[in-house]
Amino acid sequence: WDWVVACLEACVRNFHEDVMHKRLEGVEVKVENLHMFTRDGAAECTTKLVWADVPRWLTRCSNTGGTLKICALKGDDSRDVAQTLVNCAGLRELSAIVEERRIQDDAGKQGNALALEFEESREDERSRRFMMSTKQLLQSFEFASGLCAVIRHTQTQNSMVANTPSEVRKELRKIEFKIAVRRLRSALFWKPKEEIRHEHACQRQEPGPGWVCKGCKKTGDKDKSLVRFRCLAGCDFDLCIDCYSETQK
Fold first, then answer.
1. What is the three-class DSSP state of 47?
2. How far apart are CA 178 and CA 199, in angstroms?
3. What is the spatial distance between Cα 39 and Cα 71, in angstroms, rounded to a whole number?
4. Which of 25, 91, 111, 127 is geometrically suited to a Cys-Cys bond with 85, CB 3.0 to 4.6 A?
5. Long-range contacts: 53-60, Cβ < 8 Å, 24+?
């Protein structure tokens, strides 16, 4: 097994080096059958894998039930190698297919969260001290003088306003400071597929034969369980229920 691991890793690295040399010659390289290892130790084609270009999301994508297969890369130049695989071998960037949003901001618009939630909460003495020091800084005469200088520097001749440090400080002292004690929760969600957002309304229809989802390209003939949504204006536009939920609501 060790020689298999060494062979695949050598193939990936040699491919990266070949692409770099070909680019110097003005030649672009594209492949669809390059294989590499996942973080789970399985060998998969790069077209089925995802590169965790946002490392802090890795732990949140560890229990997605195989929905996301994260590639394994080693070495100081792993980021350069991954970028080559994205451009030339069909590897997908994690940030291109998912995004982080607060649970409250999402409010169910994009369905259930893909990955684990992250929470921050509670008011404590450290938070109160930080609030007071921030308040003292922003309401100080020194800060007002600096802000007044910035305002004057960014104004044009036609929009000059005579702001004095005392006037700026007076406005700053009107700010009310509070500690956010509400729980802040975020999760990873699939990015909406904007390129398949349709101009007309779609409605659930009887599946029928010969239809293909414009989003995921699944066909109703192969998967009889697919739920079909069709354009009410008569366009040749069909979506399965998953792609409809992500893009049309």
1. helix
2. 43
3. 6
4. 91
5. 53/79, 53/82, 53/93, 53/94, 53/95, 54/94, 54/95, 57/94, 57/98, 57/100, 57/115, 57/188, 59/116, 60/115, 60/116, 60/118, 60/187, 60/188
pTM here is 0.53
Amino acid at 70: I
**Over the stretch 163-214, which tens digit does the pLDDT of each residue have?**
788 888 888 899 888 876 655 677 787 776 655 677 788 888 888 888 888 8
* 16 HSE (CA, 13 A, CB side): 20
Identify the residue whose tokens are 């020194």: 142
Angle at which helix 78-88 crosses helix 2-24, to 10 degrees, equals: 70
Query: 239: Cβ–Cβ under 8 A, 6 or more apart, which residues?
Result: 196, 198, 202, 213, 214, 215, 228, 229, 247, 248
Q: Give dist(CA 245, CA 106) in Å, integer.
A: 13
First to last CA, the chain: 48
Amino acid at 26: G
Question: For residues 9 and 78, is the Cβ–Cβ distance under 8 A?
Answer: no
Nearest to residue 91, comparing CAs of 82, 104, 100, 102? 82
Distance CA 199, CA 247 (A): 11
- Structure token pair of residue 86: 């994205």
